[in-house]
């Protein structure tokens, strides 16, 4: 499974962005998709995750501002990011884990200016 992340960019504080993660290859129907981020000089951290059963998990720092979703028909996952803050600046990675695979996208830069 290969992942292509897109949608990053430069936005002012308070703005919004939507990240996309398109999967190619056979993912099956049972997989968990996650969005992670890594700021300069910091460790990669989980931002949001969505299981095939619909359960979600969000980092406390993004609860109420970010929403993870998926379109199984399009094999695409999304991360809607609202009310962005400068501390959200990072490279964002998508990750998909299923039966027999654990794939990462290439990362997309999100920069939030104050």
Explain this structure.
Helices cover 0% and strands 57% of the residues. With 114 residues, it is an all-beta fold. Strands 2, 4, 5, 6, 9, 10 and 11 form a seven-stranded mixed β-sheet that branches. It has a four-stranded antiparallel β-sheet with strand order 1-3-8-7, with no helix packed on it. A hairpin with a 5-residue loop joins strand 5 and strand 6.
How are the elements arranged and paired?
Layout: E1 2-6, E2 9-12, E3 17-24, E4 31-38, E5 45-50, E6 56-58, E7 66-71, E8 76-81, E9 90-98, E10 101-104, E11 108-113
Parallel strand pairs: 2-11
Antiparallel strand pairs: 1-3, 3-8, 4-5, 4-9, 5-6, 7-8, 9-10, 9-11
Short description:
This protein is mainly beta and 114 residues long.
Main attributes of the structure:
globular; four-stranded antiparallel sheet; mainly beta; seven-stranded mixed sheet; about 110 residues; 11 strands
Number of helices: 0
The biggest beta sheet reads: 7 strands, mixed
How far the N terminus sits from the C terminus, by CA atoms, comes to 37 Å
Give the SSE order as H and E letters. Answer: EEEEEEEEEEE
Stretches where pLDDT is under 50 for at least 5 consecutive residues are: none
- Specify the structural class: mainly beta
**Chain-averaged pLDDT:** 95
The percentage helix is: under 10%
Q: How does the overall form come out from the CA principal axes? A: globular
Number of strands: 11
* Rg, Cα atoms, Å: 13 Å
């Amino acid at each position: 499974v290969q992942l292509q992340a897109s949608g990053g960019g430069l936005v002012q504080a308070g703005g919004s962005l939507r990240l996309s993660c398109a999967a190619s290859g056979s993912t099956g129907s049972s997989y968990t998709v996650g969005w992670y981020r890594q700021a300069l000089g910091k460790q990669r951290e989980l931002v949001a995750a969505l299981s095939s059963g619909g359960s979600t998990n969000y980092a406390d720092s993004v609860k109420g501002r970010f929403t993870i979703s998926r379109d199984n028909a399009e094999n695409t996952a999304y991360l809607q990011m609202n009310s962005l803050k400068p501390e959200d600046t990072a490279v964002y990675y998508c990750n998909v884990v299923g039966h027999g695979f654990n794939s990462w996208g290439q990362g997309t830069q999100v920069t939030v200016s104050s």
